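User: quick one, sequence for these tokens?
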């Protein structure tokens, strides 16, 4: 028995000695150790791993002097708090941070300027986050504050790197000053229902890309609380708010529409809403006390609305802003036609009553808009319609059955409407820009068959529509001429197929441009002015000489497939292929085309386009913002071009593939090099590198690289210097081809060098016999190493010094005729020097 007890004691003693040794062996030697709480110990190992063991509350930074050695940390389950400055400036602690669920409090500056990165998961039992707790830590992703947290301290998460959303639980009551300052969050933010105070600069310079919701529990919004945030849309300040600090929402440049200040708001600080895009403000109660320029500096169209029975308001102007007394029931009313009147009620319903045609209105300041491919990002436009100043209040538009005409610019930018737009039976005309920018309408749009004319830009930028577009069949009209104006449905999001009635005589260009969800057009069978081939819309027009000509009117932006042009195509209409990102590869226009109109191939996905010699004119912006375009090949002389040709025609073209090349043939080169768009010093035409091919060259264009191959007999040119085997072979569809170097060795994927002058491309038959071959010539690569370097310049100089029939065995002179004039001269050496020096366009 005694022997057994002795053995157990011996084993325990052995374990006490061996186990710590095993731990230190895993992490190296010990740099330091000690206590960090009544029941907590710590050990820092040589590999930078800090192990805390035990339970209870942690005291401050016991390892502060060793903080730069800490690279990772393990915290025990049972730890209840992390002390003040615990991991202060542990800048080399770069691992993910895992805090056990037992922790309820994170102290002052606990992880301030800590080097942690990645995702932060906060413990489930957490109630308090101290001041500066995680300030300036490079976290990423979303941040979710667990339910139970009551207080978020000053600068608790300031200047952290979270790029996702922020979720705050209903348990939070206090958000301290600078709590989330400078954090690039995305998405929307809802302040919890029990928060009473939002500290100064609490969300200053945070990202956010959605809406902001403030609950009716908040009483104080501090100075700069939401300064320079990215919130979008309208905003309502609840009546519980007693004071709004200076510049609280200033520079929130994406906040727009209507700002509603509910009854009870007592004080608004200076410049509180400066540099926002709110178009009007509705004060529901008495006038608040205000600082200077609370709304910033506003234009003539900006309005402050208030209810006349409330106190403290002055008519016409208030604090320097145009103001208007409105009724809680009927906001305003008036006439909009000889037999038409309108009423805007407090539900946001704009109701038109009566019969006949509406008055025409005018645009103020024109139309300004920004867009990314196929998507409108903003529209700036206003009109003289009587309800224009109320457009932020309008939620629906009700049109009467007796309405025959909707006036020009009638409902411009009424973008806060909701639901479908119902057009009444009996409607005949829809004016120009009638619903421009009304992005709130959703669903399908159906036109009554009585409609005869739809004006230009009538529904431009109505991005909310997401259903089907149903055009009228004109069966209820009294005239034979029916028309749809230019850009009538541009940048809308109707989907699927649009049916084109045969009675539609005139479809202006760009009616359906940049409609990314349209996939096809379908022309009604029978004799008409339009027809479709493969979902593409073609249209007959009567030209200036009264002849009937065929144009391509529109390729739907959502279309994909192969373009098969009909015979006798005369013109590519304005913006015909604009936004067609799925139109890729090489497009050769038919020899019958004479005109290419504005923006015809802008924003499309083509890699190459071949312009036939028949083309006489090219208008502005034809290829602009086609970021994947690699080359434009002209088979004839320079066409006449638009007045802004040098800039807009190739604006941003080829941006994503290193720029676009202009390729022409020798017999037509003079029309390029002698035009005012040619820069001889740069070797560019219209700002793009100009490449001249021999007339006998047959060009083969590549979608996947900067290579283009010109085949002339058995010579293959057009390959840039330093082209790898993989990049070279990616240009061939026929995989039975092989490449041999100058010694005749067959290359494969293992070849790590470049393709040089003198290499051969060999075609093999099924039995492996050579059926054809071509020799590669890389311009400027005289020695065949695939690179254009000073060695080649030296070879060329040596040849030129002894030329008179002299041939250098190391120099392949086919690569030396860089200006392609048939002779090797000092001019070629100058070009080669520019190529070596990286001169643009060489």
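Assistant:
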């Amino acid at each position: 028995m005694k022997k057994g007890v002795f053995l157990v004691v011996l084993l325990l003693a052995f374990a006490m000695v061996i186990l710590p040794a095993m731990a230190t062996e895993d992490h190296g030697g010990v740099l330091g150790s000690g206590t960090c709480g009544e029941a907590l110990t710590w050990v820092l190992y040589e590999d930078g791993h800090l192990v805390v063991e035990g339970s209870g509350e942690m005291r401050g930074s016991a390892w502060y002097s060793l903080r730069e050695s800490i690279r990772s940390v393990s915290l025990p389950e049972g730890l209840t708090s992390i002390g003040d400055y615990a991991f202060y400036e542990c800048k080399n602690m770069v691992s993910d941070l895992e805090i056990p669920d037992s922790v309820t409090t994170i102290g002052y500056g606990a992880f301030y300027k800590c080097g942690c990165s990645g995702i932060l998961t906060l413990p489930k039992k957490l109630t308090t986050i101290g001041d500066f707790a995680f300030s300036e830590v490079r976290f990423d992703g979303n941040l979710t504050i667990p339910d139970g947290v009551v207080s978020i301290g000053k600068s608790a998460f300031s200047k952290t790197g979270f790029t996702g959303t922020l979720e705050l639980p209903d348990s939070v009551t206090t958000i301290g000053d600078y709590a989330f300052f400078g954090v690039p969050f995305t998405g929307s933010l809802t302040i919890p229902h029990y928060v009473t105070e939002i500290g100064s600069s609490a969300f200053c310079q945070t990202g956010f890309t959605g809406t902001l919701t403030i609950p009716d529990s908040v009483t104080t919004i501090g100075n700069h609380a939401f300064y320079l945030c990215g919130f979008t849309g309208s905003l309502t300040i609840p009546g519980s708010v007693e004071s709004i600090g200076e510049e609280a929402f200033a520079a929130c440049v994406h906040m727009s529409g209507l700002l509603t200040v509910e009854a009870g708001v007592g004080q608004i600080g200076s410049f509180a809403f400066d540099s926002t895009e709110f178009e009007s403000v509705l004060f529901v109660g008495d006038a608040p006390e205000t600082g200077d320029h609370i709304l910033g500096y506003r234009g003539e169209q900006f309005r402050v609305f208030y209810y006349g029975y409330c106190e403290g308001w002055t008519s016409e102007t208030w604090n320097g802003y145009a103001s208007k007394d409105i009724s809680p029931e009927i906001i305003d009313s008036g006439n909009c036609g000889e037999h038409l009147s309108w009423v805007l009620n407090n539900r946001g319903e704009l109701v038109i009553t009566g019969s006949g045609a509406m008055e025409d209105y005018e645009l103020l300041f024109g139309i300004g808009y920004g867009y990314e491919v196929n998507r409108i990002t903003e529209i700036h436009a206003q009109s003289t319609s009587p309800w224009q100043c109320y457009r932020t209040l309008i939620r629906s538009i009700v049109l009467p059955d007796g309405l025959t005409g909707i006036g020009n610019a009638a409902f411009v930018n009424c973008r806060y409407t909701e639901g479908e737009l119902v057009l009444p039976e009996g409607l005949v005309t829809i004016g120009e820009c009638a619903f421009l920018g009304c992005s709130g309408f959703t669903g399908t749009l159906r036109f009554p068959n009585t409609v005869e004319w739809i004006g230009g830009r009538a529904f431009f930028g109505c991005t909310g529509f997401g259903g089907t577009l149903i055009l009228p069949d004109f069966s209820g009209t009294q005239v034979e001429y029916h028309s749809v104006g230019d850009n009538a449905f541009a940048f809308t999001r109707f989907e699927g197929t649009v049916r084109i009635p045969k009675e539609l005589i005139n479809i202006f260009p760009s009616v359906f441009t940049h409609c990314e969800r349209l996939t096809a057009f379908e022309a009604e069978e029978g004799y008409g002015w339009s027809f479709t081939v493969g979902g593409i819309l073609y249209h007959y027009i009567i030209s200036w000489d009264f002849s009937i000509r065929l144009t391509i009117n529109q390729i739907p932006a959502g279309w994909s497939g192969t373009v098969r042009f009909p015979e006798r195509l005369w013109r590519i209409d304005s913006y015909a292929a604009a936004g067609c990102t799925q139109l890729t590869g090489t497009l050769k226009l038919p020899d019958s085309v004479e005109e290419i109109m504005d923006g015809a191939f802008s924003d499309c996905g083509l890699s190459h386009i071949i312009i036939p010699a028949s083309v006489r004119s090219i208008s502005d912006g034809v290829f602009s913002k086609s970021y994947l375009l690699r080359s434009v090949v002209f088979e004839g002389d320079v066409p006449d071009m638009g007045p802004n040709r040098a800039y807009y025609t190739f604006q941003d073209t080829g941006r994503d593939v290193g720029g676009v090349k202009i390729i022409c043939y020798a017999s037509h080169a003079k029309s390029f090099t002698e035009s005012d768009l040619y820069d001889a010093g740069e070797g560019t035409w219209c700002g793009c590198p100009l490449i001249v091919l021999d007339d006998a060259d047959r060009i083969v264009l590549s979608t996947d690289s900067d290579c283009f191959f010109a085949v002339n007999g058995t010579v293959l040119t057009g390959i840039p210097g330093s082209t790898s085997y993989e990049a070279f072979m990616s240009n061939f569809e026929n995989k039975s081809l092989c490449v041999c170097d100058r010694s005749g060795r067959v290359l494969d994927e293992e070849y790590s060098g470049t393709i040089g002058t003198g290499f051969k491309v060999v075609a093999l038959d099924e039995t492996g016999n050579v059926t054809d071959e071509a020799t590669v010539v890389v311009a400027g690569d005289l020695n065949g190493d695939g690179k254009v370097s000073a060695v080649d310049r030296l070879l060329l100089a040596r040849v030129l010094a002894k030329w008179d029939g002299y041939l250098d065995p190391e120099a392949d002179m086919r690569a030396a005729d860089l200006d392609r004039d048939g002779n090797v001269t000092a001019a070629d050496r100058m070009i080669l020097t520019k190529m070596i020096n990286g001169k643009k366009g060489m």
